[in-house]
Amino acid sequence: MSKPKIAIVVGSTRAARFADVPTQWIAKIARSHADIDVEVVDLRDFPLPFFDEVASSAWAPSQNEVAKRWQKKVAEFDGFIFTAAEYNHGPTAVLKNAIDYAANEWNKKPAGFVGYGSVGGARAVEQLRLHAVELQMAPVKSAVHIAWADFLAVRQGEKKLEELEHLNQAAAALVNDVAWWAKVLKAARQADAVAEEVKAA
């Protein structure tokens, strides 16, 4: 079985976003993990309109060409780590919209989160975990929460994320969890596919 492929999804598209900093940091840590392949997926490359389809793609094919391209990209991966900014006690609208624009492509794959902002993005991450469960994903327990003091120190150039050992430890645990679940669930999905082929034969 080939190594699971993990997407690091950049969950903000603002020109002044902080997301690039934790994205580069967590991607470097993830790429050092021997058991997975890693790709950064930037929502700026998928300029989705606010959801405007007749139904979820679980029930009807999407008509929007960017949505189709997004769904194809999501389907390539065996697991996901999302950067999650917190705005007004929740995740960014652009990330929730992107999640809503795919359906079956998320199923039976792990999801992990790197939160930042007020209270380390904890409320945004908890909401995203609920969305992940509805999409039959497996949100992992480990997460990274870049608390406000750390966020400001990094934003103002006083510190780098890699200098904050408590965050490095949290990131390593997150990547380990996502890698483990990605491997297990990929094998299970492949076993299901084989069983379906046998049933159809």
Automatic annotation (TrEMBL):
Domain NADPH-dependent FMN reductase-like: 4-146
Pfam families, alphabetized: FMN_red (PF03358)
Top-level taxon: Bacteria
Coiled coil regions, renumbered to chain: none
Signal peptide feature range: none
Gene3D superfamilies: 3.40.50.360
Protein name from the UniProt record: NADPH-dependent FMN reductase
Organism, as annotated: Mesorhizobium ventifaucium
Lineage of source species: Bacteria, Pseudomonadati, Pseudomonadota, Alphaproteobacteria, Hyphomicrobiales
